[in-house]
Design brief:
The protein has 364 residues and is of the alpha/beta class. It has a domain of 150 residues: Rossmann fold, CATH 3.40.50. The chain is 40% helix and 19% strand. It has 16 helices and eleven strands. The strands form two sheets. Strands 4-3-5-6-11-10 form a six-stranded mixed beta sheet, with helices on both faces. The protein has a five-stranded parallel beta sheet with strand order 2-1-7-8-9, sandwiched between helices. α8 links the parallel β5 and β6. α1 packs parallel to α12, α2 runs parallel beside α16 and α8 packs across α13. The radius of gyration is 21 Å and the shape is globular. Bound molecules: iron/sulfur cluster (SF4). The site of iron/sulfur cluster (SF4) has 15 residues, from α15.
């Protein structure tokens, strides 16, 4: 199968679902890491096609959802300074900080601009030399290479008015944090195919071995997802725990060497705060010594303040897969994509937004 449509074909989906049903005897909890996979599972009704003894748990793989409130507050403080233009991806503007969102600050007069690429922010810095341009750089391993490239280009151009506010997160340490949690009940993981396209998969076999858990690198289309679930279930039924690569049309062992080199050139691994989860050692990226002059956090010295979560938002439990969005008392009851209380309702990749759009709204 080479083309996208073949990965959405109903006949193949039905055949794979039938194989899943034939293969499963036990009760298994399978976590898809990526918010894009959550969105596809819910949107395409795959969760409803699966047998009852396979419980899909939605993981913390939505970068907007796991960006801590303290970093949003920091971005708001930067955006509120009159000589700063803060550039960001659109989803970030609606995430609630402890008092307001970037969108509300923009409405109050701050110069907050939506960009589609960090290189747009570099161009703005070139075009407006008398303003400081801060790019709010969030995301997983997938967005890190482009953000690193922006820093390299700004450095090569001698730009003194460009910096980034970085909140990058890494997938393998998050999987280990979930598996180490005493309340963990995940039996197998679908790893995010696009992350592995960049990073390869050499980090995963030791995790499989240490925690005795199957990890299946999986794509995003319905056929990808059900095939990944089938591979996971077959391993679980046999008592196996290996890495398998369902997304082999895109992913190989070593990933994209140029993208990895770009990340290594600019970043170093650090501890990182995850919204609703807490600090995870080695799960983030910060600018290394060579490029630290482009670090907005250091340039402006705005401290990280206490990380607050809205009291009745259970985003932490949702992001760790301990509760489903519909178990939240505020789901559709004061929390909706139009008026989100927590980050998982903001982003199109957030589990709460996916359930709201594709399960609840369709049934109204
Ligand atoms: S439904 Fe809203 S309040 Fe509940 S966990 Fe999701 S984002 Fe938080």
């Amino acid at each position: 199968m080479k083309y996208l449509e073949e990965y959405r074909e109903a006949r193949i989906v039905r055949e794979l679902i039938s194989k899943v049903k034939d293969s499963v005897n036990g009760e298994w909890n399978v976590m898809e890491i990526c918010g894009g996979q959550t969105h596809s599972l819910v949107k395409n009704g795959i969760i409803d096609l699966l047998p009852d003894n396979i419980n899909m748990i939605h993981g913390p793989g939505c970068p907007v959802c796991v960006t801590p409130q303290s970093i949003i507050d920091r971005a708001i403080k930067l955006a509120s300074q009159p000589d700063i233009i803060l550039c960001s991806y659109g989803d970030m503007l609606r995430i609630p900080g402890s008092e307001r969102s970037l969108l509300e600050v923009k409405a109050l007069g701050a110069d907050v601009r939506i960009v589609y690429s960090p290189l747009e922010a570099v161009q703005i810095a070139t075009d407006i030399p008398d303003k400081q341009i801060v790019f709010f750089a969030v995301g997983f391993e997938t967005t890190a290479p482009a953000n690193a490239l922006a820093v390299v280009q700004a450095s090569a151009s001698g730009l003194k008015n460009f910096s980034i506010l970085s909140s990058h997160v890494l997938v393998p340490p998050a999987i280990e944090a979930i598996l180490s949690d005493p309340d963990n009940h995940v039996d197998a993981f679908l790893a995010a195919g696009h992350v592995c396209t960049i990073m390869g998969y050499e980090e995963y076999p030791p995790i499989c071995e240490q925690y005795k858990v199957p990890i299946i690198i999986t794509g995003f289309e319905p056929v990808d997802l059900i095939q990944g679930i089938l591979m996971a279930v077959r391993q679980l039924e046999r008592g196996e725990y290996r890495l398998e690569n369902q997304y082999s049309r895109m992913v190989d062992r070593s990933g994209n060497s140029k993208a990895r080199e770009m990340i290594s050139e600019v970043y170093e691994v650090s501890e990182q705060e995850w919204r609703g989860i807490g600090r995870i050692p080695g799960s983030g990226l910060v600018l290394n010594e060579k490029y630290e002059s482009f670090d907005a956090a250091k340039r402006y010295g705005i401290p990280i303040e206490r990380n607050e979560i809205v009291s009745d938002c259970i985003a932490g439990e949702v992001l760790k897969g301990q509760k489903k969005p519909i178990e939240c008392p505020r789901f559709g009851n004061g929390c909706s994509p139009e008026s989100p209380l927590g980050a998982p309702m903001v982003s199109s990749e957030g589990a709460c937004a996916a359930y709201y759009h594709h399960r609840i709204m369709e049934s109204l």
